[in-house]
Amino acid sequence: METSVLAAANISAMALAVIFIVLIILIFTIKLLVKLIPYEVPPSSKTPRRQPAAVSAGGDHAAHVAVITATLARHLGKSPDKLRIVNISQP
After folding, report:
1. For the segment 39-70, what is each residue's pLDDT rounded down to a tens digit?
2. Which of 14, 23, 53, 80 could bridge across to 73 with cysteines, CB 3.0–4.6 Å?
3. DSSP string of 29-83, one letter each residue
4. Residue 36: phi, psi to the nearest 5?
5. Separation of alpha carbons 76 and 83, rounded Å
6. Under a CB-based contact definition with an 8 Å cutoff, are residues 85 and 68 in contact?
């Protein structure tokens, strides 16, 4: 019985040794690659993002109603003529 326990302990120790040797090799390989091939930040995209249109205080109310009506009609799958916006309030 002692030989099998001793053999199991030897195999376990060898397995642990192999695992740690492989891990050490991987660590040094990664460190070497970081030094040889440094990280480069990708260039930022030059295309401007669409900003939401600012709502003017007393400005183009009819245009805003038209845009909202068209958007709702498209979303609901109806004709814009069938929709009637009565009140628009801002929170």
Report:
1. 888 887 776 666 555 545 555 777 888 888 88
2. 80
3. HHHHHHHHS---PPPPP-SPPPPPPPPPSSS-HHHHHHHHHHHHHHHHT--GGG-
4. -80, -40
5. 10
6. yes
Tokens at 76, concatenated: 């609901």
Q: Which residue's entry shows tokens 């007393």?
A: 58
In whole angstroms, give the CA distance from residue 13 to residue 2: 16
- The length of the chain in residues reads 91
More confident residue, 29 or 58: 29
Q: Which tokens sit at 25?
A: 């090799």
Q: Residue 73: which residues within 8 A CB-CB, separation 6 or more? A: 79, 80, 82, 83
C-alpha span between 19 and 24 (Å, rounded): 9
